[in-house]
Amino acid sequence: MSLDDLxxxxxxxxxxxxxxAINLDPNYAWxxxxxxxxxxxxxxxxxxxxxxxxxxxxVPDDSAHYAERGETYRSLRxxxxxxxxxxxAIEISDxxxxxxxxxxxxYRSLRxxxxxIxxLNRAIELKPTMSWVLAERxxxxxxxxxxxQxxxxxxLAIEIQPTYTWAIGHRAIAYREQQxxxxxIxxxxxxxxxxxxxxxxYAERGExxxxxxxxxxxxxxLNHALSLDPHYAWAFGSRGAxxxxxxxxxxxxxxxxxAIELDDTYIWVIMQRGVLHRxxxxxxxxxxxxxxxxxxxxxxxxxLAERxxxxxLHRRHxxxIxxxxxAIAENPxxxxxxxxxxxxxxxxxxxxxxANDxxxxxxxxxxxxxxxAERGETYRLMRxxxxxxxxxxxAIEINxxxxxxxxxxxxxxxxxxxxxxxxxxxxxxxxxxxxxAWAWAQRGSLFRQM
Length: 450
Known about the structure:
By secondary structure, the protein is an all-alpha fold. It is built from 27 helices and no strands. The model has no long low-confidence stretch (mean pLDDT 96).
């Protein structure tokens, strides 16, 4: 075999040589260690683990052996075993910056962010030029919504390693999450120029374009991402959201469903599909999706509120109140859930609780016409007609085409025997919405009363 042939397949050549060395000396720990690294790099993880374990058995106090096996476990997402190995490596060599940083990565994967930050800080203190450690810390800051700190860390990593595509791409994500879309796209363009075969970069640019309202360009990017990686659940989810904004609802549903087939724990896209089902009045399917989100994330306030709304629409008011209450406990400023719980209370005749909820929602969202109108209806049922008229008038001022509010204000005027105003409102209500049966019936009762 020529040297050129060997260079073309250096891994196989190296494996052959290390294996020959091990055959000659079965106790050669360094050769097991080196061969294990190659096995891991080419994705032969079981063989890598076997070699690192053999190296550890032969030389049990070598921190590098534990760290490399830990890295293999981390690649396999066997995080508890990875933590044990990295911790043993650090116990042997307490200034082993790579092992400390790698343990920080594992903690990040386990969402143990405080421990992750502590390890990454220690690794940076020991070796400030490890760009990947800075980028890992930046990703934790980004995950926790500390975008300025994230961008600072990504920028330091890129300063050390200007071609660090992962850091450039994740800095772009941080910009996107700050709604700095032009900067995000500029960064992703830079990353794509460095590595044009990375599906996630096209998907991220597509998502930024989707959020900017450049939907056709977004779909082009997401299509390209999926051509590079046909099993990319996140790209299917983002494309589904883009298609839904174009009212391509069947295609959006297909994309959401495909994303969930690929990743049945993908909370964001399960929510998106649930909302799409609810908007199309496929309530049973929506209920399944929202319940699945709650199973995965029991305190997901939006899923709880959405499920509560389906219960409310089906007049399961006690179940609705239970879900809305859990959502509000998780997010006390969730005006939509508070107002919707008020509607459920009102349907049960619990008017004081309804009025309290709707007033609280109004304080949080003072210009939401539906909240004001719903409180007006509660006041009307409490026979507080003047308060009701005040609320309906404000709601109509915000939304003059609201047939529902007009019809209820007309009924309030009728209860006060202000018949002319009642007739005007009820007539306007049926003109705006000829299918408003309640308004027609109310006007009929007005004619009988006048």
